[in-house]
């Protein structure tokens, strides 16, 4: 019964949605085709009208579809997201819907006060993850005398029903925490590269003098204290030299299986080998390296997998990604069978673990700060290969 109700609810929502779209199509640019008295529509359906207004702004900003993609050999055999990616691959300018313009200071020049900026890619739907990060490793604070700042980068939800609902949520979150950067594009896996490039542009204008950047996902446990200690311990601890560090992946290549989330057809990428790159779960970059990447950003065609894309940019500018054994983003689940993964001493030594659940994050953040827990004699855990 409840299921039927839900289904009815969904159908009703879909109907309302399509009605809205129809009204929009006819009122927006086809007045002479169909005479809909605008004021009347607005009066009889005030609720719909607000939705229509929002949708209008979105349609106006929409970039034109590339109709020639059908000419790519075997295009029809690609999966739906890949087709969608190719149709809109050339679209790279999307308006900012929500911003935190003074995240790094009143003026861009003031941004040198930020030592470590945490850029966390987050789908609008991941409210719980954001809340946990705000309370734990992503807390904005003065750490060992330097500032940590945080920003979540989002697009809009894929379903238009969700889009309206989450609009208000992100707005409220940003009013409360001043930490949301939202762009007007659909937040999907193959659009993560777009998210990355739009963020780098934002960084260049809003926060050009921060020293270091943590570039990562919202499902990780990041020991940001250790990150600050590590970065402060570098010879060039002001971000003026090359740093691009994470879980290094060398010798990996594209997956040709159209059912895979990571599917990349030969028509898009011919070689069977990617350039060296770091797993996108969490990467540490210096501002020097960020700026180097920024220089080649516009001339580099978007690639469907965001961390590989960063590897491609690095290769273009002749810089190498580096490895840090304290950043574990792959093979960690295997490790958890043989190790006491809840041992806080383990996490005290690390910089990043992926994946990590929100409730685990709360517990672990508390534990690694517990002065009663004595560490030091722990056998060094084996690192996964
Ligand atoms: C459209 O797609 C075709 C086929 O991939 C490509 O050659 C062309 O450059 C694309 N056009 C734009 C504007 O990106
Ligand atoms: C990326 O976002 C654009 C703009 O919203 C959208 O048209 C396109 O379909 C999205 N691409 C994918 C692969 O979801």
TrEMBL record:
Matching Gene3D superfamilies: 3.90.550.50
Main localization, broad class: Golgi
InterPro entries: Glyco_trans_31
GO biological process, one term: poly-N-acetyllactosamine biosynthetic process
Spans traversing the lipid bilayer: none
Entry superkingdom: Eukaryota
Membrane topology: Single-pass type II membrane protein
Entry's family note: Belongs to the glycosyltransferase 31 family.
Protein name: Hexosyltransferase
Organism: Erpetoichthys calabaricus
């Amino acid at each position: 019964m409840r299921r039927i109700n839900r289904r009815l609810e969904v159908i009703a929502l879909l109907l309302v949605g399509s009605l809205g779209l129809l009204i929009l199509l006819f009122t927006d640019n086809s007045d002479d085709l169909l005479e809909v008295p605008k004021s009347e529509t607005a009066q009889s359906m005030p609720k719909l009208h607000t939705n229509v207004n929002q949708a209008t702004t979105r349609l106006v900003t929409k970039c034109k579809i590339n109709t020639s993609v059908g000419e790519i050999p075997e295009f029809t055999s690609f999966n739906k997201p890949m087709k969608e990616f190719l149709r809109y691959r050339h679209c790279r300018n999307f308006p900012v819907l929500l911003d935190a313009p003074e995240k790094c200071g009143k003026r861009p020049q003031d941004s040198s006060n930020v030592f470590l900026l945490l850029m966390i890619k987050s789908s609008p739907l991941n409210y719980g993850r954001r809340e946990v990060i705000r309370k734990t490793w992503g807390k904005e604070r003065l750490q060992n005398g330097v500032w940590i700042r945080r920003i979540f980068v989002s697009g809009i939800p894929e379903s238009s029903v969700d889009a309206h609902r989450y609009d208000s949520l992100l707005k409220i979150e940003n009013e409360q925490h001043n930490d949301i950067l939202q762009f007007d594009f659909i937040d999907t896996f193959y659009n993560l590269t777009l998210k990355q490039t739009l963020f780098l542009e934002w960084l260049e204008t809003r926060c050009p003098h921060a020293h270091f950047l943590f570039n990562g996902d919202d499902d990780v446990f990041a020991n940001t204290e250790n990150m600050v200690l590590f970065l402060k311990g570098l010879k060039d601890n002001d971000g003026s030299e090359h740093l691009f560090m994470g879980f290094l992946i060398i010798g990996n290549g594209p997956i040709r299986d159209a059912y895979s989330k990571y599917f990349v057809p030969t028509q898009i990428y011919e070689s069977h080998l990617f350039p060296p790159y770091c797993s996108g779960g969490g990467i540490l970059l210096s501002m020097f390296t960020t700026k180097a990447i920024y220089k080649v950003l516009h001339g580099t065609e978007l690639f469907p997998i965001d961390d590989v894309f960063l590897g491609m940019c690095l290769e273009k500018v002749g810089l190498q990604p580096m490895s840090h054994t304290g950043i574990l983003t792959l093979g960690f689940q295997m490790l958890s069978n043989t190790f006491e993964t809840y041992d806080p001493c383990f996490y005290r030594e690390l910089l990043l673990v992926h994946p990590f659940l929100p409730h685990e994050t709360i517990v672990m953040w508390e534990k690694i700060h517990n002065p009663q827990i004595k560490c030091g004699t722990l056998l060094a855990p084996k690192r996964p290969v």
